[in-house]
Structure formats: C-alpha cells, structure tokens
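Recall the central idea of this unit: under ordinary conditions, the amino acid sequence of a chain determines the structure it adopts. In this exercise we apply that idea directly, starting from the sequence alone.
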Amino acid sequence: MNPAEPTPLGKTGLNVTRMGMGTGPLGMVHDGTAWAAIFAAAWSAGVRTFDTSPYYGFGNSEGRLGRLLAAQNRGDYVLATKVGRLLRPDAPIDPFAEAFYYPEGLPEGVLRSQYDYSAAATRLSLVESRQRLGIDRIDIAHIHDVVELASGISHVREAMHETYPALAELRDKGEISAVGVGAQVNSVLVELGTACDFDCFLIAGRYTMLDQSAIDEVMPLCLARNIAVIIGSPYNTGILHDPTPNATFDFVQAPSELIGKAQQLKAICDRHRVPLPAAAIQFPFAHPAVAQVLTGARSAAEIKENVQFMRVQIPPELWRDLRKSGLIHPKAPLPGGL
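Accordingly, the structure predicted from this sequence is:
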C-alpha cells in the first residue's frame, strides 16, 4: 500500500494521502532538531495531510507545525485542527496533559486549555489556531473529544447545538472545507452523526485490529451518511506495536486480556513473517468508509518505520488465518474481501 496515495475524503472535495501525520507528539518533543526531522521524514515520504490541535502541547504543536509548513505551497497539503478547547492563562490545571506534554513541569508562559464548545468559542478557536499556525486557511475542523477525559462530563448537546452550527456556517461560507468529530467514544459519534451533517470522523482507537467496537453502529452510519473515516491510534497507543506485558492501551496500562489477544494476533503475523504493526496499520483500509490512517511519531525513525509498515506486502493467507481465529469481529471486512 502506498502511504502517499491521494484518496477522496468523502464528499468534501479534498484529497488526502492514505497516511496522515498526527502531530500530537510535536507538542511534546522539545528538541527543535528532532521535530523538524519528524516533519521532514513525513514530507519526503509523500505524506501531505497534517492533523493538529490547540490541546497538543497547549499550542506547541500548532506553532511548530505552522513553522514547518511555512516553506511549502499552501495548495500542496491538507491541514486539520480541532475546536472545543481554548488556551487561557487562568484555565484549570490538567494533570494528565501537563504530565504528558511537560513531564518536568509547565514552562513559564505556556497557557493551559479549558473546554468551551460554545459557538463564539468555536469561531475564536479557529482564529487563534490560524494565528499560531501562521496559515490563513484550515481545511478540516474537528470537534475534539466532546466527553472530558478526566471527569467524563459530556458536551454532546452543546456540540450539537452550538459547535456544529458554527462550523457548518463557516463551511457554507467556504472558510473551511470539512467539519468533523475527533473522538474515541462510539456513542458520541453515533449521536452526533445522526443529528448533524458531518463530513468526516476521526475515530481514535475504536476501529483497529484489536478493537472493532465501532463496527456495529458507527461504521454503518458513516456509510449511510457518506461520512469519511480517518483512523487515529491504529496501534491503540502502543499495544499493537509491541504487545509486551507492560504495553499501553488508550495511554494506560493494558489489561491482561487485551495483552493476551494482541499476543495472539502477533503470533499469527509471526507465522507469516509479517510485523504485527504492518498488519495493524493496513487492517482499517479494508472497510469502505476508511479514507486515511493517522500516525503520530516521536522521531523521524518512527515515521520511516510506519511508512515501511504501510508498504509491506501482506499475503492473503494471513488475513484468512485472522478470520479463522475469531479474533476479528465477523462484520469487519479484511483485505482481499475476506
């Protein structure tokens, strides 16, 4: 599979590359040489879709990505960011994000993020994102998370009645090309996708070789409503890259039953001499709703590795063995029409 292959993003009129670069890690890699090398590796591989958010590094990801894209022609890439959080000096402390992006402590002058899904905040968020990026047009605006990560508080109603209408108006005016949702909760995607006219979903971790929980409701909805699917976290934050006893799933220690399942998947891949991550990154494309897989990387070597995983020729016998194993949901299509 060619990671640089352009493919239509549903009804948006945009063409995205099969592999996109998720820039969450740009918010946490504090070596300027390293994050420039990450971008250079992606660009040289033909990756032309870049996904960011104000939340990633509390503005760092957007700022760095913008500087890296400044040397490129604006028409040569697709750019996505997210709304739902504003960066403010008086925002509440987010222990998880601060430890994740700044393990040595939040530097002086770095703003914290606060949830705000109001229409006014949505419009302001995109203005501020454009300023941090130094780019006057954003192609895709995703509503981010919707359910607060720490508290579990849901903002679905506000997203439906405030955030989405504001983004739809900007889409109608031609200021953005596509409106999406970036989330990892299936019920949120179903509720929003049923009520609103979204162009794309960024589904984080719910349609992977380990977890196909989106298959029953989310994926049929996407097909029925022509919502293009972008897959985030194809390795479920680590476990499908290397399913060791200490592997992570959704950023925390993976439960033993998932580690066991991932090890079974790896054993099947090993029998066919295919790296588990290669099968994992290619698996989602068998579903007709899937346009792209996003991969994040903390080094140029990781980007290059992901590119190679996309290019691995996987024998049909591997997919047949996966189907026979019962480890894949029976409704989930496999490459080769299996």
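Residues 209 and 280 are 6 Å apart (CA to CA).
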